[in-house]
Design a protein that fits this description.
- By secondary structure, this protein is an alpha+beta fold.
- The chain has 2 domains: 148 residues; 150 residues, Alpha-Beta Plaits (2-Layer Sandwich).
- Helices cover 63% and strands 10% of the residues.
- It contains 10 helices and 5 strands, in the order H-H-H-H-H-H-E-H-H-E-E-H-E-H-E.
- The chain has a 5-stranded mixed sheet with strand order 2-3-1-4-5, with helices on both faces.
- Helix 1 packs antiparallel against helix 2.
- Bound molecules: 3'-deoxy-guanosine-5'-triphosphate and magnesium ion (MG) (2 copies).
């Protein structure tokens, strides 16, 4: 009877708990907060499981309102399977539920009863299914994320990610009063490679350039494929002089790189590069437009050179 009576306030409390959790929507993209919220999601039913057992003096109800609470850890163990979690995260949340059930059973001397063993067996079974679900979800999400953000040919990030990074780096450069420069690369007469030797050879040239670009940047430099045979590098902390030095080094390294055509002959390789340093108060649109203008000038002036923005 006591158990049945305490069922209603517990019901109100658990609904309130989940409601508060649902309203806690800040920083959806913060991983640590997401973990905390998920931890709360399994801790709330765990607490109510313990509460219901205490209310019933340790026993498990056969019927009635309280039966639902004793079922909660199992429901949430299964529910964990819908979240894309790492094995470690899944194990941590599973441990909360397992400790709750095993701890309560041990405290009320029901651990080595048939129903106690049955509950733990069921919980372990649900964890196995949940782990499988979590890892499959995580793997699928990571694959989708990679496909949406990376260029498949070169492995560099795509234009969308680059512009997002550029906006972020520009904001922090303005905030810190630090310099930032952008380099825009366009391979010279690349269409000829495709026309004379086929697209597969062209693809190998693009891959080789991506390697040279990555190897030529300072540690904090960020590189991506802007589109076609155009690439961008963001150099946080670099003023015009330093950026020009990096551009020159990449230009020279690319000239010295060997990519052979299908007949085994080395292809002539060169690249034109525009350089622009961020101006006070400037946004990504005008910065990219300026670096694009200087790249155009490099092409106009005979290619295979680095040109600073006006
Ligand atoms: P310029 O020196 O003036 O830049 O001449 P260009 O031939 O490099 O410039 P253009 O813009 O005429 O040609 C770029 C070529 O890049 C055309 C396009 O077919 C090729 N291209 C774009 N993306 C890819 C790709 O992923 N693989 C291959 N193989 N070719 C590509
Ligand atoms: Mg081009
Ligand atoms: Mg080109």
């Amino acid at each position: 009877m006591t158990g049945e009576l305490s069922g209603s306030p517990m019901g109100i409390a658990i609904v309130t708990g989940f409601l508060l959790l649902g309203l806690w929507t800040q920083s959806r993209h913060n991983v640590r907060l997401m973990r905390l919220r998920l931890g709360a999601l399994v801790t709330i039913p765990a607490l109510f499981y313990v509460g219901s057992r205490v209310a019933l003096g340790g026993g498990l109800p056969e019927h009635g309102l309280m039966l639902g609470y004793t079922f909660l850890p199992f429901l949430f163990a299964a529910l964990l399977g819908i979240f894309p979690l790492t094995f470690k995260e899944g194990a941590a949340f599973a441990a909360i539920l397992l400790a709750t059930v095993v701890g309560s059973d041990a405290a009320f001397h029901t651990l080595f009863t048939v129903s106690g063993m049955r509950d733990i067996w069921l919980l372990l079974l649900l964890f196995v299914v949940a782990f499988w679900g979590q890892l499959s979800q995580l793997e699928m999400l990571l694959r989708l994320h990679r496909e949406a953000t990376r260029d498949a040919l070169t492995g560099l990030v795509n234009r969308r990610v680059l512009i997002r990074w550029l906006d972020r780096e520009i904001r922090s450069a303005h905030a810190a009063g630090e310099p930032l420069s952008v380099l825009l690369f366009d391979l010279d007469l690349f269409k000829r490679v495709n026309d004379n030797h086929g697209h597969l050879t062209g693809d190998r040239v693009l891959q080789a350039f991506a390697g040279v670009l990555k190897g030529g940047l300072p540690e904090q430099g960020l590189a991506g494929r802007y589109g076609g045979e155009e690439f961008i590098a963001i150099l946080p902390g670099a003023g015009e002089e330093a950026a020009q030095g990096v551009a020159e080094a990449v230009r020279r390294a690319w000239r010295e790189t060997t990519v052979s055509d299908p007949a085994g002959e080395p292809l002539p390789l060169s690249v034109s590069i525009g350089v622009a340093e961020l101006r006070p108060g400037e946004g990504s649109d005008t910065l990219v437009a300026r670096v694009d203008d200087s790249l155009y000038l490099a092409k106009e002036s005979g290619r295979d050179m680095v040109v600073k923005a006006a």
